[in-house]
Amino acid sequence: MELISLKYAIFVIALLVLYYCFPKKYRWYVLLAGSMAYYVIICKWYVLFIIFTICTTYGSTIWIDKLLKKQNAIVKSHKEDWDRQTRKDYKEKGRKKRVAVMLFALLCNFGILAFLKYIPYAGELGLLLPLGISFYTFQSMGYVMDVYREIVEPEKNFLKVALFVSFFPQIIQGPIAIYDKLAGQLYEGHSLRLENLQKGALLVLWGVMKKLVIADRAVNIINFVMDKPMDFSGTYVFFAAVVYALQLYADFSGGIDIVRGIAEMFGITMSTNFNHPYFSRSLTEYWHRWHMTLGDWCRNYIFYPLSISKRFLNFGKWLKPRFGAHISKVLPGCIASVITFIVIGVWHGANMKYLYFGLWNGIVIMLAELFAPVNKKVAGGFFKLTGLREKGIFATIVSVLWTFMLILVGYYFDIAANASTAFHMLFKSVTDFHISELGINNIILNLGACGLDEYDILLLIICTLLWFFISFVEENKKLDMRDFILSRKLPLRWAIIYLGIFIVIIFGYYGPGVNPADFVYMQF
User: Fold this and answer.
1) Closest by alpha carbon to 405, among 493, 282, 251, 273?
2) Are residues 17 and 156 in the same domain?
3) Does 48 have pLDDT greater than 70?
């Protein structure tokens, strides 16, 4: 049951009807039943893995809560006869017990994920990677850590925890939700509102357009060049990397739009996962705009705990008299950032190329932070000398293009078969690049065998420019295009909606002879 399929559409519509037919207090049961049924249909017996995660998540959070309440009760009962040190020692002993429970849950779930994802022996046993395991593991373990930190109260109802872990729209490719932002919405019975249905449907349509019209057409170029990248000039290797940047964004954000749109029709607002990332003026800003829920998860549960740990704080103190205030303040956080990006890289797969992907992003951001004072002085001198404004159009365009090139280098490791090929592709893109080869006739001549003709290339360019224009307006006017469409008069509103449907039906890349591409992030 693919995300873009008639079966899935019928499933969602049927579940919507059931959801709004039930009394409000029982509507979350409909979501739970639908979510588990969906997972069983697409994963069969692999549902046992998500059931294991549900059980360990529920059990560990309840156990942690019981240990904490027992500790607090005993401390309170000895308020008069225990001195401060005794209370401190007892609390530390209790904390270690709670840490042990939390670590048990983390090791069990991340251990299973690591075994299935990174150990070749798992494949020999015939074990495939269960759909969405990375997403629901990260989400549920984030909840366990939040309970340990006393950020949220543990949910006592086992079935409600099951719904939080398995909510069907996001199970395929996220977004990764934080418990206190999503759980309450899942358990609340939402009223039927026309606005939710309209805005949700528009977001689904927008996601389908990006996937079928842009991503599934662009992937042909990438597959064709990456099949034998050394057979092409550096120009076309670079061109394939640029097309990959477009295809990945259209594919992933399109899928997330569909997920968020479906959730919105149920009255549930899911976290935004993309905020026009290719308009970023630095690599740091890009990672605050791209796959935002994974970035938030890594910051909350890896970067911040590392950067404020005793070891890192002591390292900063050791640096200060030797290297100055700036280095002592920035370097520990930079090292924590590099470690975080290594985790992000390894999360993508068991291949050295993903390690290099993480290292590239982490090291570039680290160097930018370390040399920030120097960069600021150089940039200030340049703007003073030229009379240009620091936040003017020229500076913005240069910053955005430079950032995109840094992003693109990371993508070479993503699309190459291995790290060695990625380095060769980068070298070739620099030493064998010829701008004259980027004419549309040359592209068709050299890449025509990929299955796209002049019409497809032209359509891809037009749709990309249209998407860029819409994104530019949303970015600069802080406008939600759905609100804009729904605020128009009825004839214009429906004209825009029908135009979108027409574009999907007429220009979508599907039908006889077309092998539809899976969503990229389904593999994680």
Assistant:
1) 282
2) yes
3) yes
> Nearest-CA neighbor of 259 among 247, 249, 271?
271
Based on its alpha-carbon atoms, the radius of gyration of the chain, rounded to whole angstroms, reads: 25
Q: Give this prediction's pTM.
A: 0.91
Least confident window among 115-129, 198-212, 380-394, 472-486: 115-129
CA dist 130 → 109, 251, 254 (Å): 13, 21, 22
Structure-block tokens of residue 512? 């006889």
Shared domain check, 405 and 300: yes
Q: How many domains does the chain have?
A: 3
Say whether 97 sits in a helix, a strand or coil: helix
Distances (CA, A) of 162 to 32, 53, 54, 136, 496: 7, 9, 6, 11, 39
Q: In which domain, by residue range, is 174 found?
A: 6-192
Residues 6+ apart with CB under 8 A from 520: 248, 251, 252
Q: Percentage of residues in the chain with pLDDT exceeding 90?
A: 60
Q: Are 156 and 58 in contact (CB under 8 A)?
A: no
Q: Report if residue 372 sits inside a domain.
A: yes
Highest mean pLDDT among 196-205, 441-450, 474-483: 196-205
The residue behind tokens 């077309």 is 514
**Distance from C-alpha of 27 to C-alpha of 22, rounded to nearest angstrom:** 6
Amino acid 251: pLDDT: 93
318 lies in some domain: yes
Which pLDDT belongs to residue 121? 52
Could you tell me the two tokens for 433? 């690049």
Same domain, 157 and 218: no
Provide the CA 331 distance to its chain's centre, in angstroms: 27
Residue/partner pairs of 337-346 with CB below 8 Å, 24 or more apart: 337/303, 337/362, 337/365, 337/366, 337/369, 338/362, 338/363, 338/366, 339/302, 339/303, 339/306, 340/298, 340/299, 340/302, 340/303, 340/306, 341/365, 343/298, 343/302, 344/294, 344/298
Predicted confidence (pLDDT) per residue in 81-111, tens digit: 888 888 888 888 999 999 999 999 999 999 9
Q: How far apart are the first and last CA of the chain?
A: 17
For residue 512, pLDDT beyond 60:
no
CA distances from 296 to 44, 147, 475 (A): 32, 17, 21
Distances (CA, A) of 407 to 72, 282, 439: 49, 10, 24
237 with 428: CB under 8 angstroms? yes
Q: Is residue 421 part of a domain?
A: no
The predicted-structure confidence for 347-378, as pLDDT tens digits, reads as follows 888 788 999 999 999 999 999 999 988 888 88
Are 380 and 439 within one domain? no
User: Which pLDDT belongs to residue 520?
Assistant: 66
Residue 511 lies in a domain: yes
